[in-house]
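debug: dumping io for the single-chain case to check the tokenizer round-trip. Nothing else runs in this session.
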Amino acid sequence: RKCSVLFYFSRQINNYLVMAKEAMVIVLDVGKSMGELHGSMTNLDKAKSACRLLIQQKLLFGYKQDMAAILLLNSSTTNNVCHEEHGGYDCIEEHVKLSTPSLDLLECIDNVQCNESGVSGDPLDAILVSAEIIMSFVGTKKYTKRIFMLTDGGTAINDADQLDSIAQSFVDNDIQLNCILMNKNEHADDHDADDAIESWRDIQLDNDGGGRSAVQIENEKMLRYFALRCHGNVFSGQSAIAMMSELRAKSVLMRPTFSGYLEVSASLRIACKMYCRCREQALPSLKKESLLSSSADNTKVEMNRKYVNKFAVGGADGDGDGDRDETERVKSYLYGQERIPFSENDESRLSYHSGERHFKCLYFCKASLIARHYFMASSFVVLPDTASARAQLLLSCFVRSLHEKQMVMLCRLVSRKNAPPKFVVLQPRIKSGQELFILNELPFFEDVRKFPFASFAMKSSYVASKAQVDCCKQLIRSMSLMPSADADADEDADAQEALRPQQTFNPVLQRFYQNLSVRALDPQAALQEIDAVIVKYLNPSVLEAPRAQHCVAQLAKLFPTKLVPKKEVKKERAHWNQVGDALDNLFADMQVDAKQDDAEAGAGADADMELDALIVVEQVTEIGTAHPCQDFDSLFSKKNAPNLFETLSVSFWLVIHRLVDESFGDFGFDKALKCIEFHKSVSIREEECMLFNQELRKFKAKYSEKNKALWRELVQRGITLICKQDFAADAIEVPVNCTVTKQDADNFMNMEMPPQPAAQVVAQDEDDDDVDDLV
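debug: decoded output
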């Protein structure tokens, strides 16, 4: 058991620790048989297309230290290191030496021509020369070593008895051979076990009706046998070009983001490493260049940032120097409507010091308690340190134990010194060939967004019927990613899940890479249309199935919709007829409907004229004194800011104070009290009681003594503070910040009111009546 676990983890770590740098040699056959026309292209043209795709992959997704070389087999020129040292490696030319892939390398591939002289070299010699080039450059450095041979197998392989020894040397030096055969054969027996084949003669091939020569058949058997022994692959030309043309993602450097100990307890620590498993891939960073530079090597531009005090003399619009250096600037943070400055010393002292980097276990809990939507940021895998046998055994025990009990591990992670601590969860993962922990970051209280929504049960019209629910369930089942047995596909065929992440590419990135490759070769080329493969990702192909179409049609019948025409708001300059609207608003509370009188008068003069055509409707932009409650509702319904309620409430109370202060006698008191009642009901509905209670206390302090008549009317209407019982009456959960009780609300209104003076009848002069009529 111990040996199997150690071997398992060692193999698993090696799968993750793929070498980031690669040394690659492409062996291109330019023999006479490669120039034969097959359809509209020769085999050499197809091989050159495959070479270009290999180099383009390196240019787009490779690393800076990647190296590539091109070797020509069956060339009319002999130029290679093995021939110079040992001799005998004829007709093999080192066309491009091992160097960093560039656009010049693509142009060299285009210039390669077929050798019509008929001279031939040995493909096995070309493989040995490629291995010598790679090993001479790599030495003891850590590189992925690969050889790509593109040939039709038209020249014979000599010394077939040395295949096993050469293949073993490739295995010892971690060199992989990938052979792309430019012929018609697309079928070969699959051999998963090395013991199934003892010689290259055991390889079984389809002769494809005699379309290939005996030499090509024997060469393919030898190449397949050699690739099998050194863990390589053999592809046909058509399938290889299709695979390399397929969209792919950029390779990333497998470097641990954390290397240390998982501290389960004070006496139990597990040496482990953490690797990023999933992270959002963004577009590559763009660098700006100058179009006015005289030299192509001197086009780099830099950005200079300038801080200017626009209120000082010589600021942004002044004539003097308004630039402020670093000693004259300070950071400030918004606190309400004020900005609080913090110096660099204050900022460093305020920063949270989490201590040395650590990875500590906090608790174990049921896996069902951790919801999937709580996961944040990227996901990581946690693997044991391969240098410690104890760590491999301990981590294996925890993975299997948590998996059996369906539990997870909650931990605190500080990846570097004094870094912000993270609350993470470790989920056990056991599959064929994988046994590890999946790490995801969990949110703190401040990270969770809480959006209160009313229940559908509040109105009977919002509750879905049984037929509607069943139709939605049927649509969900019909759009499953895994096709069922009763689908249109063959029941005997292997069901494959749709939209697998390994086969679903980002359309934005892929279209960018597609156009980048074209522009690299031709800077004046037009932008390419979006590829059909990319379009396929954007369209839900599951809906094309007849079963899903039936569900969609049924869903449209059960949920009918209608088009609501949008009201057109006319925005024009103020006209003379708006004066009548202002007068209507002024006398709205006096039950004087001037609009109705104007409409009746207009109807008598011209029956075809409509009053709405004469009224210019303006969009509400602020709370006015004419219809403050309606203005509040109109602005609050937009929901265009997170603190919209607080902002509108402050403006609304300013309007209430204006109604009282600018009132002619007690003319505006009734409207002001109605506004207070309205704001109280809205505050209860929105669960915002603190602002209303605070403003009502200010209102009492200002007007309870200054305007006793107004305060007496407020008390008579029973307008008081919002208390906990107000939320209970409306079946709303009491907010945490509501601390006012019913007794506190009653005491707020209990104050000794001055006696109301008795009405006195005063004899007025008849001459004063004319004066009163003018008021």
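debug: round-trip ok. The CA atoms of residues 188 and 757 lie 112 Å apart.
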